[in-house]
Every structure is written in C-alpha cells, then in structure tokens.
Please model this.
Amino acid sequence: MVRHRFVIQQPVFCTLLSRFTSRRNSTVIASSPRRARFTAGFTLVELLVVIAIIGVLVALLLPAVQAAREAARNSQCKNSLKQIGLGMINYESARQEFPAGGWSFSWMGDPDAGTGARQPGGWIYQTAPYLEQAGVTFIGGGSRGTAKYEALSKQREVVVPLFYCPSRRAAVALPSMEECFNAAKPSVDAKTDYAANGGARQISTGSRKPAPNADLTDCLAPGFPNCDWNQGDDTIKAFTGIVTARLGAKGRQITDGTSNTILAGEKYVPQAFYETTTYKAEGSGNPADDNPGDNSSMYQGYDYDNVRWPNGSFDAAGKPQGNLPLSDSAFGANERVYLPGGERRMGGPHASSVNLVYVDGSVHAIEFDVDPLVWNSLGDREDGNNFQ
Model:
C-alpha cells in the first residue's frame, strides 16, 4: 500500500518540479534579451554629452578652487606680516626705538656689533631674535678676520619661511649677486618678500664703503671706528619713515599715530624675476641691475632689498606719480621688464592690493590704485595727516 502510494506520487512530484524548472528557465530566457537590451552600453553621442558636462563642471569649479587657494595664501601672507610687525614692535618695546636699517647692501650682520647705529646688518637681522630666529645672529660670533668673513657667508643663506609670501614663491635661497665687505659671497642668498617703511622720501642709500683713506681692516675692527657711517650725516635724521640707514624711529616720533603709519609691507618684485635676478649679462656689465630690489640677502644693511619708500603725489597735469604700490603682474609673467624706480616701490602678487602692517600691529590690504596723497601720508609718520 505504501509502495503503491510512492509509485503514484513520484511522477507527480517530478512533473511539478519539471514544470517549475521549465517555467523558470523560460522566464530567464525570455527576460534575458530585454535585460541585455537595457544594460547594453551607450551611444557615442551620449558619451560626448557626458564629457561635455564634466568639462563645464570643471571649468566652473576650477576658478573657485584657485580662488580658495589664493585666499588661503593671502591669509598666510597677512599672518606673516602680523608676526613680523609684532617682532619689530617688541624690539621697540625693549630698546625704545625701532630696529635700525644697517649700513648698506655692502654689509651683512655682525654678531659682535650689537644693535643700532654700529650694527652693519639691516633691520631683519636685528629683529631676528624677536622672531624666534636668534640663531642667525650667533653665526660667526667671536671670530675674526678670514674666519669671520667666511662664517658670515653662511648667515646670508639662512632661509626664514616667515619672510616669503606663498603667493609669490617657495621659501628657498636663490642665486646670489652682490659682494659684501664683511662676508664672502655664497652661491645663494635668503630672500625677503617684505620691506620696512623707509619714509615718504628716500634721503640716503646707506654707507657703501669705509671712510675715505680708511683701511678696510680698521673699518672692520671692533667698534668700526673708521667707517663713513661714523662721520655724521644730518640728512639721515630727517627721514620720515620707521627705518633708515643706521637709525630706527622712536615711538614718540610717530606723531601721526601708530594706526596711521606703515611699519612694513610687501615689496614689488616683477613676476619674471621671482626666482632669478637677471636674464642678461650685458648692459651695465652688472647683471644684478636687472632686478636691484631683490638681488642680495635679506640680512644685508639698508638697501632696496629690505626697505621701500611709499610716496605719491600728482603732477601738473593731475597724473599720479611717485612710488605708488604696484602689482607684480603689471608687465606680465614673461616680460623681462625692469621698471626704473620699481625697486623703491611696495607691491605684491595679489589680485588688487598690497598687504601692509601698521605700527600698531594691525594688518591692512591697500588697493594698488590708492589715492597718491593717502599713500604718501601712510608712509610719513609726521606729516599731520591721518588717513586710515
């Protein structure tokens, strides 16, 4: 009885299974062409449309990305100026005067000469300890003669990223062009993208050589007794900025107010000269003349490399004139143009303005097309005008 029931049910089960399998297979077979048609690739036209859309999106997003990156670099530049300004202000608080400008581009900082008028190195060298860079002021300390001459060559190469604007160039030493009396010439020099305010008029280019008939050895003796800076120069005392040759302004001399006077700012450097000082060796015979405002170490004494003179006025025809701020791109990235007087100007790589730090430590962005009279007043600490 049980066997009979099993024999009868077996074909029924197999029949049902067969029907289910057959139906399932037919569904797969029947649906496979439809599924294949649905997932089969896309046409060339569709591909081109997608590529075009991606291209449009990239074109729309790229300027925004670039703008965001430049905004970040600009912010870093302003922060660097803030720190530099605070270092100079702390120097003034400790010594009752701002750092002196040093002697000239022919001199590097001397670790045994102290600060002020007897220090041949510039304001950056003298401010270094207040910017956590005291190490550079120890190089060559206690040595004499040739040993010091060679040691100070190393000073020229010490890069401090704080003094480089990231919108302009990387913080690296660049080819050296200038000889110095107290330091051997290295292959590269540390640079600065920032300069101190030398005043609304340039009244001195610093002391290039020892005094007439003075032996260089005597000039380099302790105390520098025979250098021409020690002969007296009343015109230097008439400067209207914050830093000049051998002198720094005292706080009480800033009668226009610390919030109305430039302390330091970005200096103008043509785009084509960001990483070189020259494109030719002819002309004056001195290739450094191609870019005299950026051809030596930032530690040198009073010179175009680390001091600029913001001034401006109108000529008889009402046209702006003077050392007005200038965009680095004024002549294009590939134009090998040296602008006469450009080494005296402040300026920068940013789109429309130059960054400055005032004597009160505040940072400002001033448009390149600033009113010449306003610009002149900002560079003069005692002209009686108060522009902000």
